[in-house]
Amino acid sequence: SDLTRFPWRSAAATLGQRFREDRLGLTASSLTFTTTMALVPFFTVALANRKSTLLIDHADGLREAIRVVKLRHPFEIVAMVVLPDHLHAVWRLPPGDMDYPTRWALIKAGFSRGIPKGECTRPSRTAKRERGLWQRRYWEHLIRDDRDLQTHVDYIHHNPVKHGYVAGAAD
Fold first, then answer.
1. 26-50 pLDDT per residue, tens
2. Sheet holding 139-142, edge to edge
3. What φ, ψ does residue 144 adopt, rounded to 5°?
């Protein structure tokens, strides 16, 4: 799999334009923890084997797992980048819905079902019927305001540069 063929430039331009046009309807007051407002979290989700390239080798499977979960548990992807061994995403959940852990569990499980077995699995994971492809935990951050959102969207755009996959965020 060759990351240099991914249309980073067009994806970044689309997200940037969408952010400028819509401002995503986000303000500091609309990001509060209430049952009537949308929750906007940032995530970092990683594979257990940080030298793996499964996420890009099986990008279609990841895309399908996300599509299926979105049908039953709607959310909007504000920004996302998928690298060989981890991904970053900003989502907007429906008002009153804070159940992103279920969404991630279903995405991870759906993706894992499409990967041929063969990884080493520790007894503790086997006992819990886990494959061991993903790190059990992920990092999450609740977006606080427009500036925080822009910071995290910029981080997503520049992450392929940080890891040396492209020369610039527009590539």
1. 444 344 443 445 789 999 999 999 9
2. 76-82, 86-92, 41-46, 139-142
3. -95, -35
